[in-house]
Each structure stands twice: as C-alpha cells, then as structure tokens.
Amino acid sequence: MPSSDLADGESDPTTWAEANLPSEQAAGLIALADGLCQIGRLRDGNHAGQFSVFNFLLRAAYEEPASGSSDRPLVILMQAGVFRRHAWYARLYWPNDDRPLRVELPSPIDKGWFWWPDIEEIAKRLAGEDVWRQTVGQPWQTRAAEIAADLQTAELFKIRR
Length: 161
Description:
Number of domains: 1
Shape: globular
Number of strands: 7
Strand content: 15-25%
Structural class: alpha+beta
Radius of gyration: 15 Å
Strand order of the largest sheet: 1-7-6-5-4-3-2
Distance between the termini: 12 Å
C-alpha cells in the first residue's frame, strides 16, 4: 500500500534528532538523490540513479504513482559496510498545494555510521560534471539550500512496520 494512503495510526510523527539525521545533511542528501534521478532520466529515461564510492552506495528512484494519485515519491537508499553493515532508506513526497514536504522513515540512521563524508565525496565527483549542470541546472549547494527551506516546514514521520 502506498505510504500516502496509510490510515491514521500507521505512521507517527518524529523529529530529525530521533531520525539521527541533521536537517542540513538531509537537504544535501535529498538534493544529491534527486540529481541522480534527473541524470538517470536524461541517460535512459528512468527516474532512478545510483552512485558508489568506496564501500558506500547511494540509490534513488521515483516510484510510480499510486492509482488515483499524482504523487511520485522519491525513495532514497544508503548502504555501506564491510565488517559492520549499515542500511537506511527514506521516502519523500515533494510539497504541493495540499501539504508541505513529507518525509517517511522506517528507522533512524545508525548512531555509529559516519555517512556524510561519503555524500560529500559523491557530490564532489558528480555535482561538478556537465551532466549535473544539464539536468539539475544549479550547483549542489544551491539545490540543497532550496530543499533546506522546504525542510523547515516538512512533516517527518516514522513508519510503523
């Protein structure tokens, strides 16, 4: 069942602190994930992309809308680890006239996982390339700042399993 159709009580409000995800870093992560999807659309028509650096993988894809809905949620997945495995994902719905940005998380990011340097490395390698400029049309930091503004009023939910 698409998460936008969840009945009340199947998701609970949460905070950035409980998610172990600083909102500034969330904005950078979302900007990079959306950029990967835009590059994927340009290259092969799919609204999806991935980038791997070291032992870290970032994947992003826009889901098909549920029947009767125009929402195409962006799903972001991060995975890392050789000895200790880490995995985390989020689903987000862009703001529209009816609601602000909505972010759904099944779990917080592991406390011992230092994933941000890998995101910065991916951004350094990808966001300066011509394909980024063609598809996104602005620097990573600028796009992240726009998303950070949306995150100020975002609804953040923990999905119950």
